[in-house]
Design goal:
Strands 1-2 form a two-stranded antiparallel sheet. Strands 3-4 form a two-stranded antiparallel sheet. It has helices at about 20-35, 40-50, 55-65, 75-80, 85-90, 115-120, 150-175, 185-200, 205-220, 230-255, 270; strands spanning about 5-10, 15-20, 270-275, 275. Helices cover about 50% and strands about 5% of the residues.
Length: about 280
């Protein structure tokens, strides 16, 4: 095994993809996806560092049948040290799902939270990647106008871009470029499928299902309806993310009286990051 070449993937026919090739391919796709809400810089940064934990002998052994290793924490830690916290959170969860951010003061290196993993890296608890000589320049943080819920939606969208781009670049390599993509029905056709699917929900019987239907209708009505002045200002910078946040927020308000509240990842007291939130 050449210890100077770090591979991200090995195809069944023996072709090899280096970590650098995979990260650059992922970054190109990720930035393209994030352009829809003005987040190209953030997307490119997270993608260019997401698999740096594969630049280790532990992961290279894993490729050849060795034990599983954590390859997500290393790149997350490098971004975290550069104050690219949003990107670090996305990288940390790009295989297992967005992590519970945790508590910067209380969490320990043994905790599985984001802060726990960062402390584990600080204490030398992960294998240090080699060849990480690229400087990180964190883009200026977006202005979320103090809206932590909106910020959480933005992070989820940035995360989604990374996961999709990572999967697609991997699939493209493993298939030898034969993966068919972008041959989908148009939005009008998809909307018709969706409306047909939810049509039976329009006659709810139980109190819970009545609330669910009320929330669905409320969310679909929300575009252009709430927080008009702030919304217009936010859309100039973050378009799609703001619209999604609006719909989710109105649904949240509609659910206020439901006995079992929705899980919407809106826990600001738990997720504070010294001025940045997740």
């Amino acid at each position: 095994m050449d210890e100077t070449v770090f591979l991200a993937h090995i195809a069944e026919d023996g072709r090899e993809q280096t970590v650098d090739e995979h990260e650059r391919g992922t970054a190109e796709l990720c930035a393209k996806f994030a352009a829809q809400f003005g987040a190209e810089e953030y997307a490119k940064l997270e993608a260019m560092w997401h698999d740096d934990g594969k630049n280790t002998q532990g992961f290279q052994r894993r490729l050849r049948g060795g034990p599983a290793v954590d390859h997500s924490t290393a790149g997350a830690f490098e971004c975290f040290r550069a104050n690219a916290v949003h990107e670090a959170i996305c990288i940390a969860g790009h295989h297992g799902g967005l992590p519970d951010v945790g508590n910067a003061k209380m969490d320990t290196p043994e905790d599985s939270t984001f802060f726990g993993r960062m402390k584990k890296a600080i204490n030398g608890g992960i294998e240090e990647p080699r060849g990480m000589d690229r400087p990180i320049t964190a883009p200026q943080r977006p202005n979320f106008y103090g809206d932590r819920f909106y910020e959480s939606v933005w992070i989820k969208m940035l995360y989604s871009c990374l996961v999709d781009a990572d999967y697609l670049d991997t699939e493209n390599f493993m298939s030898g470029g034969k993966a068919a993509r972008e041959e989908y029905d148009d939005m009008a056709t998809l909307l018709a499928y969706f409306e047909k699917h939810i049509a039976p929900w329009a006659n709810p019987q139980s109190e819970l299902n009545k609330k669910r239907w009320e929330m669905s209708c409320c969310g679909r009505r929300s575009k252009g309806n709430i927080h008009a002045e702030r919304t217009n200002r936010q859309r100039q910078n973050h378009g799609v993310a703001c619209i999604c946040a609006e719909a989710c927020r109105e649904a949240q308000h509609a659910a206020y009286n439901i006995r079992y509240p929705l899980h919407i990842y809106n826990r600001p007291k738990r997720q504070g990051i010294q001025g940045n939130t997740a």
